[in-house]
Amino acid sequence: xxxxxxxxxxxxxxxxxxxxxxxxxxxxxxxxxxxxxxxxxxxxxxxxxxxxxxxxxxxxxxxxxxxxxxxxxxxxxxxxxxxxxxxxxxxxxxxxxxxxxxxxxxxxxxxxxxxxxxxxxxxxxxxxxxxxxxxxxxxxxxxxxxxxxxxxxxxxxxxxxxxxxxxxxxxxxxxxxxxxxxxxxxxxxxxxxxxxxxxxxxxxxxx
Length: 207
Hints:
Blueprint: H1 9-12, H2 16-22, E1 27-32, E2 35-47, E3 76-81, E4 85-92, E5 99-110, H3 112-120, H4 129-133, H5 139-146, E6 162-165, E7 175-178, E8 195-198
Antiparallel strand pairs: 1-2, 1-6, 2-5, 2-8, 3-4, 4-5, 7-8
Helix pairs in contact: 3-5
């Protein structure tokens, strides 16, 4: 398993857009009882809190579902959509700024068989070409692939279950910035350039 420098909570207590950008290329590692699943983060989206109509905390809303957003940066926010998919977010900034970064896509690096079994119930070598392309190229897919679920919601990132390792910075030329996906309900905020991708990576969403 990789042994790079683990990102501390202070990394996530910074400006949310900067966190979303700088997470591209970092390694995310899921530890399930000593079974490690490692992937590279290749796609993120920033959600900017009280004034961002796409964010769950828009307007200062506090519910059982979104209360994790009001914790300090470095907490894990996992929520269910469509009654089917758990989506992984990392809370940023502080209690006064309920913001987060959505992890949208990852490239599997280590324990490919484990990742494949989590996602499709079979070893990597037995996957079809289509299945290999769709292992973790979307927020619901990557949660299944890495064994991420709502049991992590509200916890602080930790090497005991989920953590992120540092890596070299991605060059500006390798960083693709676009508007976010699937948030048409957010009006003008849907067009904000808050999606960050590793250019030409096959695990970035095609939408």
